[in-house]
Amino acid sequence: MALKATIYKADLSIADMDRNYYESPSLTMARHPSETDERMMVRLVAYAIHANEALTFTKGLFDVEEPDLWQKDLTGAIELWIEVGQPDEKVLLKACGRSEHVVVYSYAATSHIWWKGLANKVERCKNLSVINLNADATEQLGRMAQRTMQLQCTIQDGQIWLTDGTSTVEIGREIFKSERD
């Protein structure tokens, strides 16, 4: 018998001063049985960074043809494709061909090794950004995961903070590749 997803709910208050975006979406996320709390929380942070009314969580790990999050325009064309983790070259090349913009959020302590082996294979992808989130911070995010969460995300001057009212995590970012690199 196949294991089912675990449902998590998050009331996320977003104050993104860099984009002048201030909203409080109520999110429902399905956590795949093989997904860790840390990875799920990185998906949540990726949502907060790119939040808008068209951005949605996808089937993700349940469907290898879809990213973790995407934003489509009214015609169904993919404007933004977001992957979490360390996707392989094939996934990224396909994503870059199908979407206007592709963003990868890696977060493991081994991300530098993964990127070193992949960088030259995707250098021709001008619509690809790869951002490494601090591994210690994402581990702390994993410990924040609850089935029902009240979270506040603040983004200012490129810095990101996520708090659950008890603890606050500052999420450092390192850009491995930005669009047009």
From TrEMBL:
InterPro entries for the chain: Restrct_endonuc-II-like, YaeQ, YaeQ_sf
CDD domains, sorted: YaeQ-like
Signal peptide limits: none
Protein name (Swiss-Prot/TrEMBL): YaeQ family protein
Species of provenance: Pseudoduganella danionis
